[in-house]
Amino acid sequence: MPDAHTSLTLQMLEWIQQQSPSYRNVLDTWQSTCPRLCIWEDACADGLINCDGGSAGLVTVTAKGREMLLGAVKVPVFFPSLKSIDKA
């Protein structure tokens, strides 16, 4: 199971991919003042997202971000402690 930072990063990437939000909307939603959970800043630094057009532009998920999403195990957000269920 991914750690909290990775889980939030995946959540943000999925949200961006579905919404195609503006830069301002993403910052309002995902910017953090908590130094332990700087999801937006880390995603930018890791090349997972792209913003063309500066603050007036749209934010998109990069190829690297899409690869991260494709490689992720999908666990429902409302069941964060859910682990795999073995079928006998």
Keywords, separated by commas or semicolons:
88 residues; mainly alpha; 2 strands; 45% helix
Mean pLDDT: 78
Helix content range:
40-55%
Biggest sheet, spatial arrangement of strands: 1-2
**Strand content of the residues, in percent?**
5-15%
Which structural class do the helices and strands define?
mainly alpha
Distance separating the two termini: 21 Å
Task: Outline the biggest β-sheet.
Answer: 2 strands, antiparallel
Number of strands: 2
* Cα Rg: 14 Å
Enumerate the spans where pLDDT stays under 50 for 5 or more consecutive residues. 76-88
Written as H for each helix and E for each strand, in order along the chain, the element string is: HHHEEH
- With helices defined by DSSP (H or I, 4 residues minimum), what is the helix count? 4
Judging from the principal axes of the Cα atoms, what is the shape? Answer: globular
Brief summary:
The protein has helices at 4-19, 23-30, 39-45, 63-71, and strands at 49-52, 58-61.
Question: What's the structural blueprint in terms of helices and strands?
Answer:
Elements: H1 4-19, H2 23-30, H3 39-45, E1 49-52, E2 58-61, H4 63-71
Antiparallel strand pairs: 1-2
Walk me through this protein's architecture:
The protein contains four helices and two strands; from the N terminus they run H-H-H-E-E-H. The chain has 88 residues and is mainly α. Strands 1-2 form a two-stranded antiparallel ribbon. Strand 1 (49-52) and strand 2 (58-61) form a beta hairpin. It is globular. Mean pLDDT is 78; it is low at 76-88.
